[in-house]
Amino acid sequence: MVGGCVKARVVVADISDIRESLLRVFDAFGGVEEFVKPDSKVFIKYNGVHFGKEMYTDPVVIGEMVSIAKDVTRDRVYVMENSTQGNFTRLVAAVSGIANITEQKGGQNLYLDEEKPVMVEMGEERTSTKFPKILYDNLILKKRNNVLINIPKLKTHLMTTVTLGIKCFQGLLYDSDKLVNHNYKLHQKLVDNVKFIQPDFTIIEGINALKFGHFPPQALLPECVVPTNIFIGSDDVVACDTVGAKILGYDIDEVEHIKLAAEQGLGVGDLKNIEVIGDISRFKERFPYTPCRECPSDVRFIRGKEMSCVEGCYGNTLLALLYLRYDFSGAGGFNIIAGKGVEENELKDLLPGNILIVGPCTIEENLDRVREKYPDRKIYTINECNDIAKITANLGEMMKIEPLSMVPLDVNKVLEILQQAIQNGLDANLPL
């Protein structure tokens, strides 16, 4: 307590040697031994949303964190994620190199989409949610000295402005539960995740920062990557995210989930009450969080005026569309409708191709109208706000792209990895 205000400390460390720089972050909090004990099980949560370059936490950083933890504990060090829908974690870890470096450094890959779940209740609505049993047993029921270290990547995000420590915990959920409230309710959902299970320490990997959102087409990556060469670390995830957001150019009043987390007592969100060790004054750019390209002109995308959530139907569909267009030269000539409040005249004279209707409120309002006007067209419907796998599958079919062609590995290797995951209990939504 300083001056009557709760204080937090956040380290912003320039990266020279990765291992030494990670240790320097922990040194400001008494050293890594303050968190990792000789009998600790260590769980390292990284950002592995997808295997696209710069979308995941740098594998070398993950490997060094495993090595640092192994120097202290005699127990296991787990490296874990549950990648975004439309993908699966074992594949992301293989393509990115995270799986190999984890094993080389003596860690154990933990693919959360292959783990057995338990049912828990989350948030004020007490939503019934599947949660990995191994985490529930070791980090909630039997916490003791076990440690949860969170290593997100420094990125902007179309739906949440930034994706840092708090947002990274969306990857603790199974795909079926990621579908729930992935709309205008997403911001509170992210806070509820961290209310349920908080990290002991957060280090934001900022070797590079990603602007123009979290899911850029690889063809446009040179426009989206900014070298920043920093780690941002704290034992307070809200304070860590507050400083990370500031470095990306945003106050927490502009980042709803960080603001809510601070208001609901999960950490410090006021920069005046955060001791920042390191210089952040040099970061003056405001990194855009919306995509650097608009909807292609040969696709008609009708967005409802009353409700069309960027956190759900609209945002996910736009990102998948841009990904398929710029990385795989996907064909156009079709139509997309997302959201509520579509006027009758907007449904006239659609492009001659097929029609994709995304989201429950859109289907309720528009499906019958579209069927009546265009009885000879193929109409695809997606009943959830955030069914990325089905969005990708439907767009892939319309744009003439096979799902397996999206993976930068030999098809037989992909099928081998998929079979391994299925044999180990894979629970994921895939565009197959």
How would you describe what is shown here?
This protein has 432 residues and is of the alpha/beta class. The chain is built from 15 helices and 16 strands. It folds into two domains: 8-277, Rossmann fold, CATH 3.40.50; 299-401, no CATH class. Strands 1, 2, 3, 4, 7, 8, 9, 10, 11 and 12 form a ten-stranded mixed β-sheet that branches. It has a four-stranded parallel β-sheet with strand order 13-14-15-16, with helices on both faces. A two-stranded antiparallel sheet has the order 5-6. Helix 1 packs across helix 2, helix 8 packs across helix 11 and helix 12 packs across helix 14 (388-398). The longest helix is centred in the last third of the chain and has 16 residues, at 313-328. The chain is globular. The mean pLDDT is 95.
Brief description of this entry?
The chain is an alpha/beta fold and 432 residues long. It contains 15 helices and 16 strands.
Assign the CATH topology of the largest domain.
Rossmann fold
Q: Taking Cα atoms only, what radius of gyration do you get, to the nearest Å?
A: 22 Å
Question: What low-confidence regions span 5 or more consecutive residues with pLDDT below 50?
Answer: none
Query: Into which percent range does the helicity of residues fall?
Result: 25-40%
Characterize the main sheet.
10 strands, mixed
Specify the CATH homologous superfamily of the largest domain.
LarA, N-terminal domain
Strand % is 15-25%
Report how far apart the termini are.
54 Å
Assign the CATH architecture of the largest domain. 3-Layer(aba) Sandwich
What general form does the structure show?
globular
Average pLDDT number:
95
Count of DSSP H/I helices = 15
Number of strands: 16
Tally of individual domains: 2
Determine the structural class based on helices, strands and strand pairing.
alpha/beta
User: What is the CATH level 1 assignment of the largest domain?
Assistant: Alpha Beta
